[in-house]
Amino acid sequence: MHELSLIQSLLTIIEEHAKQHGFNKVNQINLSCGRLSSVEPQALDFAFKALTPSGICAGARLDLTILPMKIHCFACNQEYESKGTNPTTCPHCRGDQVMVTSGWQELQLLELDVD
Ligand SMILES: [Zn+2]
Description:
The protein is an alpha+beta fold. The protein is built from two helices and six strands, in the order H-E-H-E-E-E-E-E.
């Protein structure tokens, strides 16, 4: 499972932060990833729980923000966002000459709530 290695590297980053900033309990972890990345929120939660039976992250809450897909329309040259995973027709001109320009962002650590 791809999520296990994502969580593993996340935990390594958090442990580094803990050493630098001297905290020993993490309450919440805010993450983001693109709609089109291969991150599966439920699998991420599962991997996180499996890998943190104890330690500074045990019991912490994962908060994952899914960034919307951005799409460029060639007909009217505008950009729009879509919450789905398929580019729809352009909401501005109803054209279908569109290209996805963003949405593949990998998992990113945004913020930690610590004690
Ligand atoms: Zn358009």
